[in-house]
Amino acid sequence: MYISTPFISVLAAASTAQAFQFSDITTTASNIKRGIKQEACPAVWSEISATLTQQFLADGQCTDAARAAIRAGFHDCFNGACDGSLILADECSRPENIGLARLCGNLGNLAQQKNVGVGDLIQFAAAHAIKTCPGGPTVPVKIGRKDSSTPSPAGILPTGHESAPDLIAHFAARGFSAIDLAALIGAHTAARNRVTVPDKANLTMDSTPGQWDNRYYAETINGKAPVTIPSDRNMAGNLLTGVPMRSFAVSQGAWGVAFVPAMEKMGLMGVGRSGLVDCTAALPGGSRRRDVKRAGVWERVRW
Predict the structure, then answer these.
(1) CA 130 to CA 135: how far, in whole Å?
(2) Fold (CATH) for 158-266
(3) CA of 201: how far to CAs of 64, 99, 195, 198, 204, in Å?
(4) pLDDT band at 7, cuts 50/70/90?
(5) Which of 72, 99, 108, 280 has the fewest C-beta atoms under 10 angstroms from its C-beta?
(6) What is the set of active-site residues?
(7) Residues flagged as binding site for heme b
(8) How would CATH label the architecture of 42-156+273-302?
(9) Confidence check: pLDDT of 27 > 70
(10) Which residues sit in the known binding site?
(11) Each residue of 39-54: pLDDT tens digit?
């Protein structure tokens, strides 16, 4: 086949221009990447991590202090913002926070000793406790929140007696889907009932409270948990939350894939991401990448 010389010249010119443009883009991207300096997590958070491990792990199981830390992470944020007001405004003394007083005192003292933000420490401790529980995933944690000593509104936290539609709407108003909600309540795998079901006070919500596993879902759905709070039972029977709960009962990996981003979102309520420093590497086991690699292919697909 005959190809004219002018045509060959045009192709050559086009190829040269394309190569030049691609080279420019690559060089520009590299320069931008080099120009962005990733601020390192302060070393003090590794020191704090070592201290928390001593408090959150005993005999290969996560402790009551770890359970309280996970609960505190939710209670500081859901009223409005993850700003440390749980401790700084003494919200810990509210009836809705019964059982958290000791943890609030310990974290408040630790924040003062290490000169770190209280809101940051509450969320770091929650992520640390989740990871410390055997089987727990790595929830990315950021540092740099602005603390507040102004009390958040009372009466916003769920009571444990809501209907599923009410609870779904309550979380939706704060940016969480029904699947987020179904995943987040899985933290009850390491929880104790305090006063929600009075005749079963201090009983755990699944049969393996010292481990982070999906047994909570199976036992809640089958009615075999030591205690189930009414709202959890209601969600198990609702289509929007019950379907993902049944999926999580079958696959802990699927639960983890849904739980981690929902919990990370919770830890940034009223804060945003701008100006924050990633301190995930200071958690036990460090990077989230290891969790993703361990998960099966289908478990990595988000809902």
Answers:
(1) 9
(2) Peroxidase; domain 2 (1.10.420)
(3) 14, 12, 6, 5, 9
(4) very low
(5) 99
(6) 75
(7) 188
(8) Orthogonal Bundle (1.10)
(9) no
(10) 76, 83, 85, 188-189, 206, 208, 213
(11) 899 999 999 999 999 9
